Amino acid sequence: MRLEAGKRVALQVAKEVSPNGYFVTNGVQEVLLHYSEVIGEIEVGDRVEVFLYYDTEDRLAATMRKPLIELGEVALLEVVDVHPRFGCFLEMGLGRNLLLPFKEQPDLKELRPQVGDKVFVVLNHDRQGRLVAKTAGEAELKPLCFDAPASWKNKKVLARVYKPLQMGTFVVCDGGIVGFGVIGLIHDADRTRLLRLGEEVEIRITFIREDGNVNGSMRAAKHIGRDEDSERILAVLRDRPNGAMPYSDETPADVVSQRFQISKAAFKRALGKLMKEGLVYQKGSWTHLKQEQGSSEE
Prior knowledge:
- The protein is mainly beta.
- The protein has helices spanning 138-141, 222-239, 253-260, 264-276; strands at residues 8-17, 21-25, 30-34, 47-54, 60-63, 74-83, 87-91, 97-101, 118-125, 131-135, 156-164, 168-173, 182-187, 200-208, 214-217, 244-245, 280-283, 286-289.
- The chain has a 5-stranded mixed beta barrel with strand order 1-2-3-5-4. A 5-stranded antiparallel sheet has the order 8-7-6-9-10, with no helix packed on it.
């Protein structure tokens, strides 16, 4: 049996070599089990379970510590450091960190994980056989997730980003202790901003699909969101000279999104509510506060 990094195997303690540690073997190949990697007391001849990895000198080595992930497994690992040239490093429970290279991360810098984020990854080998993280996709995550129950409709859940795109963000919704959770998608129109790989965000489940996955939104339900959006528009108007702003029903959707962080449809609903309540009126391509709602300078 060829010894491979990333696997837990039972090996026999062949000899002790001070001041380094013990050499463990499968009868064909020996690897060093450093004194600092020993848990409890062992003796020559004992059979011990170890995890294999490459040390800082690129030598296959062993540890009796239990990793958070093993070869071929999927795990959610925390980002503990970011290197400007190589990528980010993940905590894997061994006192040494696992590299998630830039090639496994989004091209857009704003979408890359930051320290404290947690990323779904698969433990893999690089070309030299060293351990490296690969970003997990739906193919790896779906078998570990469950189908959303009907009771999740309109429920608020925490979700973790596993694939950030500009057209939408793919997430795993927290399912508590049952598997990894539920696969979900936040369409760009339902985001209030771009989301990073590994970022956690609270969303509202808007639709449960036939395949058991869900659609989610960072926006409040329309009857709640309309009030929040209306207040946002009023705040802008109150801060403007003469209580007027160059935005109206005619304003392009991309301008509305950039200025108010809401969709064009939500903007029109909020404006309609304010006009119905007699708080604002439109003139041409401008929206104005009614005189009694304006500033004292008007």
